[in-house]
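[step 3/7] fold_predict: job queued, chain A
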Amino acid sequence: MTRYRISQNQMLQGARRAPIPIDAADLWWRHSVFYCLDIETFQDSDGDGVGDIPGLISRLPYLADLGVTCLWLMPFFPTAHRDDGYDITDFFSIDPRLGTLGDMVELLRVARGMGIRIIIDFVMNHTSDQHAWFKQARRSRDDPKRHWYVWRDEPPENPDPPVFPDKEDSTWTRDEKTGQYYLHHFLHDQPDLNVALPDVRREIDKNLGLWLEIGVSGFRIDAVPFMFNSGPGDAGTGGSNAGGTGADGTDTHEYNGVDHLARVREFLSRRSAEAFLLGEVNMPYEQGKQWFGKARDGLQLQFDFPAMQRLYLSLARGDARALGDMLASRPEVDSSQQWANFVRNHDELTLDQLEPKELDEVFEAYAPEEGMRVYGRGIRRRLPPMVQDERAVRMVYALTFALPGTPILFYGEEIGMGENLDVGGRLAVRTPMQWASEGGFSTARPSQWVRQAPTGPYGPEHVNVDDQLADPGSLLSHVRQLIGLYRSTPEQAWAHLQVLQGGPAEVLAHVCRGEDWAMLALHSFADKGTSVRITVDADDAILTDRMTGAAIDATAPLALDLEPYGWRWFLLHPADAEVTVR
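[step 4/7] structure written:
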C-alpha cells in the first residue's frame, strides 16, 4: 500500500487533504482522544488503598462517556518503588498489587468493546538496579550480562548532566564490588541499558512482541533521546552518540539512535497493522523532528513540548504572541505522522526550553514559592491552582482541542483537579482520582491510600466527578463538549495550521485549513474583554459558530467581542477563503 508515501513537495498538500474513512481508520491515532492515567491512583477495587486493574475496568464506562478513545497507561510492571513505577524489575509481568496478566487481558478486551484502545509506557532505556539482569551484571566484569549495561573504569571528563539534579550529582556511579562505574541518566537506582547491544535489542523486541500479542495498540516511549542514544561509546555519554569500542569489543562508531528507532518501528509495523509509537521528545522543533524520521521509519506521534512551554509563557504575560510565534514555526509533518497537543503530562511541568528571563516570568506567576518548583526547570502543580481562574482553564482546553493534532489529557484534568504539594517531587500531581466528595477512590481509610489527595479548595469535597456529572455547566461538561466537537470533525486531524498575524496581542487567531473544510479559532489570553476585527476575502463569506450553530454574514468586515479569556470557533465558508485579523 503506497497511498501514504508522500514526497517532501507533496507533504503540505497531503496534510491538507480531507481524510477518507479508510485513511481515518488506518491512522486511527491521528484523530484519537488520549487519556493518561496511573492504575494505582485511579480506582481501588479491593479496599487495600491501591488502585488496580479491576478498579480501572469498573471506570471504563465513565471514560467512554467522556469521549476517550485511547488510554495511555503509566508503568504497571513489578517495581522497586524508587521512581513511581519507572524503575522496573520485570518488563514481562504485572505488579501484583495491581492485578494479574489475566486482569490485563480483560481490561484490553472490555476497553476495546467500548471503543477504547490502550497503549502502554515503554521504558527500556533503563532498569531498576534490583532487576535480575543488573544483579547478574554486577557479579563480575566477566559476567555474560555485563555488557547489557554501560561501564567505565573512570567517568568521562564531560559527562551528561543528570535528569534529576536535585537527587544525583553525576550520571555515573561506582559499583564497589567490581570497581567500575555504570551509566544512569536518571537515578543511580536506574542503570541505563546498552541498547546498542544486539542481545538487549532482542529483549526489546521480545517485550514489544509480548504486549502486542496481548492486545495493546501502541507504546509511549519514555525519554526518546536517552532511550535510543545510550551506547558504550568511548565518550560514555548517552546523549553524545559517541563511537568507539565498547566493553564487549563491539565497534560502536556506526551506532545511531535514529537508525535504532527505525529498527523498532519496522518491528512494530511487522507485528501489528494498527500499532504506533508516541514519543516523549523534549527538544526544539529542529532537533526533535529527526525522531519523526521519514514517512515510515520514526515516531508516528510526538509531544509538542515547544508549544506547551510557550503556552504558559503566554498565560503568564496575558499575551498570545509567544505561543503564536512558536505554533507558526511548527514543522508540517507527513500525513502518517502527527503532533500531540497537551497542557501538562504526568511529570513536572517542564519549562527548560524557555530563556532564563522567560522562565523567571512563569515561575513568578505560577510557582512563586520554591516548594512549587523542581529541578530548577519545572513546576509541580496542575493548571487550575496555578491560574486560579476557571475561565482561563476553559480557554486553555478549548485551544488544545482547536489545534491540528492529537489531544492528550492527564487524568483529572477534565474536572480541574489540583496538586498536593505535601507529596514529594513530581508525585504532587499524581494524587488519587477524585470521584466523589469523600474521595471515592478507595474504601480504605485515606491514611492507607497509596497517595494522599489534595486538601482545601481543590480537595475531593470541592472537586469531584459526581458533582460535575450533575452540573451541565461544569468543567467536565465543557471538556466533554470539546471532545465531541473534535471527534465530529476528523478533517481537523489532517488540517494545516495557519497562525494569523496582526490581531490584538492578547488573542491567538488561527485557521485549521483542509481541502474543503476550514475552522477559524480565536482564543484570548487576557483577563479583560477584547475585540477582534475579522475580514474574510470572499463574496459569499459565512462564519458558522460551532458552539451555537448561528451563521454570521462575513461578506463585510466585522468585529467580534471576546470576554475575558474568551474563545470562539467558526466554520469558515468558503474553506479556501483568506482571513485577516486586526
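[step 5/7] annotate
The two ends are 46 Å apart (CA to CA).
Confidence is low (pLDDT under 50) at residues 1-16, 231-254.
exit 0
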